[in-house]
Design brief:
The chain is α/β, with parallel strands linked by helices and 486 residues long. It has helices spanning 8-17, 19-30, 39-54, 142-161, 185-191, 247-256, 279-287, 292-299, 307-313, 353-366, 406-418, 437-442, 468-484, and strands at residues 59-63, 70-75, 83-89, 109-111, 136-138, 169-175, 200-203, 215-217, 219-231, 237-238, 316-323, 334-335, 338-347, 370-372, 387-396, 399-400, 425-427, 430-433, 447-449, 465-467. The protein has two domains: 8-218 and 401-484, Aminopeptidase; 222-274 and 314-396, Alpha-Beta Plaits, CATH 3.30.70.360. The chain has 13 helices and 20 strands. Strands 9, 11, 13, 14, 15, 16 and 18 form a seven-stranded mixed β-sheet that branches. It has a six-stranded mixed β-sheet with strand order 1-2-6-3-7-19, covered by helices on one side. Strands 4-5-20 form a three-stranded antiparallel β-sheet. The radius of gyration is 24 Å and the shape is globular.
Length: 486
């Protein structure tokens, strides 16, 4: 294994010289409809990834999980004493066209600025190579999580061209169903312990700090996603001709019993065992450069004084969708026969998805409802209006890795070197969820998150985008990690 220090300036120049093909390659990736609920599209995306990985010298294969496939790749480094496993996901959230300020979420466009502020749509050929870093690439999956995957593959390609050797054995595992809770990933990880064996797991998901500084996170909240339906009559009826139970009112009452107006969970036992931040974690929180005023201006609402603590150390119940009856142009004077809520609970240390699920069902029963844990079991007539059906359930536990491990310090230092010495923002945990649990709990590995995407990239919403300077920086960050961690 070579001990010569790489010529990092030469690599930077190589990235600069290939800006346009890097962007065009990512745009091709974004055109693939790998929405997690589109199995055929996800599988086609896996095959596309395999070709791209093999073209860059990686041994790669599609691996079955029982759901959407995973993609595995490996690049051994002769003489390496450490193996790094890198996790990303190539599936994406659904992208209904409403709200997207471009013809299609799957036809990427460039903008020099944000869509919401009116920055005009530009084609990939409308921008000079020198100006690309000042632009943003818009399309579903640009930030979450195809951009980071493309940064990795580009780094592998350019490291070979620049004769920069990885000093760690590299393994990639790309999840095909992260956006619907990685339902099969835990069992997949357990089944393939030997294949996924490593000394360290790196996860490139989520946004950097809003300051733009490099960011390293040492955990993620878990998540429990549920969809519940309450059905009364067999069909909708005219509200003036009938007087029958309204499932929408009953569901609203149930939801009001589950959380306070500020979102604090009221479900009995849900937060049992949850611990506040330690003294060391509070020191990390105090160092996070939160621009409270900027967020409040953008959103038009005040943030609570303990905003960061709520984001990282407290569980939540979030209604993310409600459906019953008709509104707008379809509005009708009816009593709906069905009401549905989709919500998620973000889980923190000492919470477990299975236990939280049972506590929520216990709460529903305590409000006088019967719970049917089946998406298609018939509802007996005597239970109509008071039976809550669990239509969908998925999730996983939270996970954390100690910030003070020697390997943790090595990762922070490598990321800072990749950013020319700029100090990293160190997060004790992320507010979002990603299945780190599969690595920390099943494989027993330190697992660290290094986000590549820009803050406020609109992931999971219309107008998702990736700043191209962050994409190019991601290439350099991957290269440093693969070299410096050896």
């Amino acid at each position: 294994m070579s001990t010569l220090e790489p010529n990092w300036e030469s690599l930077t120049r190589a990235v600069t010289a290939r800006r346009r093909p890097i962007v065009e390659g990512l745009a091709e990736f974004l055109r693939l409809d790998t929405v997690t609920q589109n199995p055929a599209g996800v599988r086609a995306g896996a095959e596309w990834l395999i070709r791209a990985m093999r073209a860059r010298g990686l041994a790669a294969e599609v691996m079955e999980t029982g759901g959407n496939p995973a993609v595995y790749g490996a690049l051994p480094a002769p003489g390496a004493h450490r193996t790094v496993l890198i996790y990303c996901h190539y599936d994406v959230k659904p992208a209904p066209p409403a709200g997207w300020l471009q013809p299609s979420p799957f036809e990427p466009v460039l903008r020099c600025g944000t869509a919401e502020e009116g920055a005009p749509v530009l084609g990939l050929r409308d921008v000079s190579e020198a100006e690309l870093p000042q632009h943003r690439l818009y399309g579903r999956g640009a930030a979450d999580d195809k951009g980071p995957i493309w940064a990795h593959l580009t780094a592998v390609e350019l490291m070979r061209v620049q004769s920069i050797a990885a000093r760690v054995n590299v393994k990639f595992i790309f999840d095909g169903e992260e956006e619907m809770g990685s339902q099969h990933f835990g069992a997949f990880t357990d089944k393939h312990r030997d294949l996924l064996a490593a000394d360290l797991v790196l996860v490139m998901d989520g946004p950097k700090d809003a300051s733009g500084r490099p960011t390293v996170a040492f955990g993620a909240r878990g998540v429990l996603s549920l969809e519940l339906t309450l059905e009364a009559a067999r069909r909708d009826v005219h509200s003036g001709n009938f007087n029958i139970p309204n499932p929408a009112w009953r569901l609203v009452g149930l939801l009001a019993s589950m959380a306070a107006p500020d979102g604090t969970p009221l479900v009995e036992g849900l937060e049992e065992g949850v611990a506040p931040p330690t003294a060391a974690e509070r020191e990390l929180l105090a160092c996070i450069p939160l621009d409270r005023a900027s967020i409040e201006r953008e959103l038009g609402i005040p943030l609570p004084a303990d905003y960061l603590e709520r984001l990282m150390f407290r569980s939540t119940l979030t209604i993310r969708g409600l459906k019953s009856g008709f509104t707008g142009r379809e509005a009708q004077t009816i009593i709906p026969h069905q009401a549905t809520v989709a919500f998620d609970a973000r889980l923190v240390k000492n919470q477990h998805a299975e236990i939280v699920y049972r506590r929520i069902l216990d709460h529903v029963r305590a409000q006088g409802f019967v719970v049917i844990e089946s998406a298609d079991a018939p509802i007996p007539d005597e239970l109509r209006g008071r039976a809550v059906r669990v239509v969908e359930r998925r999730g996983y536990d939270p996970a954390k890795t100690a910030v003070d491990l020697p390997i943790s310090r090595l990762v922070i230092e490598a990321v800072e070197r990749a950013h020319r010495g700029e100090p990293a923002v160190v997060l004790p945990t992320m507010g979002g969820s990603v299945p780190l649990w599969a690595f920390t709990d099943i494989l027993g590995l330190p697992t660290i998150v290094v986000p590549y995407a820009n803050a406020n990239n609109r992931q999971h919403t219309p107008n998702e985008h990736l700043r191209l300077d962050h994409l190019f920086q991601g290439v350099l960050t991957t290269a440093h990690l693969l070299h410096d961690l050896g």
